[in-house]
Amino acid sequence: QVQLVESGGGLVQAGDSLRLSCTSSGRAFSTRAMAWFRLTPGKEREFVASVNANGGRAYTGNSGEDRFTIFRDNASNTLYLQINSLKPEDTAVYYCAAALTQYGGPARGEYLYWGQGTQVTVSS
After folding, report:
1. Rounded to whole angstroms, how far apart are CA atoms 68 and 28?
2. Using CA atoms, how far apart are residues 123 and 34, in angstroms rounded to an integer?
3. CB atoms < 10 A from the CB of 74, how many?
């Protein structure tokens, strides 16, 4: 099965920017839609953004739509999430996920594989 590993999180201050990365094992990365979700303790997992297999279409969720950019580099089997102007409410564990199909939306059920997450903490 596919293994996903997130990185790039950390402790930052409000207004900073971060670029999260997700590396994928296997040869099928370029055939799968990919997505980012985030989880805060006491809340349900929230959809952040998704991108189709070839990177040509992206969808960003309601939270931080103007500040979040998802993109991918299929040559390196890597998914990215650029977050600008970070806010304390962005504090969460961020997870990447891989779908079976070329397109993916906000539903968790569309994604077969999940990483362990990377912690993003934004101080005031």
Report:
1. 25
2. 28
3. 16
Distance CA 2, CA 113 (A): 6
Query: Are 121 and 91 contacting, i.e. CB atoms less than 8 angstroms apart?
Result: yes
Here the tokens at position 44 are 């349900």
Taken as a whole, the chain contains a residue count of: 124
Question: 73-84 pLDDT, tens per residue?
Answer: 999 999 999 999
Contact 4, 22 (CB under 8 A): yes
Dihedral (Cα; 62, 65, 66, 71), 10-degree rounding: -170
Phi, psi of 84, rounded to the nearest 5 degrees: -110, 155
Q: What's the pLDDT at 64?
A: 63
Phi-psi region of 30 (alpha: psi -120 to 50; beta: other; left: phi over 0): alpha
- For position 122, what pLDDT does the model report? 97
